[in-house]
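Practice set, problem 2.
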Amino acid sequence: MADPMRIRAQEKDGKVLVRALMRHEMESGQRKDSSGQVIPAWWIQDVTASLNGKEVFSCEWGPAISKNPFLQFTIKEGKKGDTVSITWTDSKGDTRTDEATVS
């Protein structure tokens, strides 16, 4: 299982700014290790975000995203105390979900 995401969600003027740092190796499948063997591709494919259980954001990623990707987006409606959760699924089928409370 991957390390937890670092998620920060802050409300200002009725909008919630969400920032997330996801820990993942994000291998493209084009690099080689020290013995010359190709490192197998392995990256985050799908990301979804929810506010209090309602999906508010989703995207699909490819192998060109950097290691430990940073994601930032704004939710138009939200208030302090709401729960933001982010889920990703990678190309090996592993999944991770973490959440934060809006401050």
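Problem 2, part (b): a different protein.
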Amino acid sequence: MDQKPSSHLSEDKATERFATMKRIEAFILSEKTDSVLASLEALNLQATFYGSKGMGQGEKYMVTYGMGAGTAKTSYSNRSTVVTIVEESDVEHAVVAIKQSAKTGKKNAGIIVISPVDNIHTI
């Protein structure tokens, strides 16, 4: 009788649960952060966000230097990265909410990446 110890059974159940979880990562314009977080909160979803810089096709910013004597375009754009982990059944609702709240009317307002979650450990 090869049986797993009971501690392995609970790990298996936890792994099954997390197998249906997805990580949604949205790279958006910084000024849209509050709107995106509010839309996720309205869906009762938690999220983490942080400032980031992108070198993609987004709008670059002009900076002045030399006491206003010159200007230069940065090689990056300021972004926010919003991350949430949701049940697979909530992915579509979260993506629609992010798209609507991050929309600017311009092209290249951001991207959304969806990845599987293999496991979650609490600290």
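Answer key, part (b): The mean pLDDT is 80. The chain has three helices and six strands.
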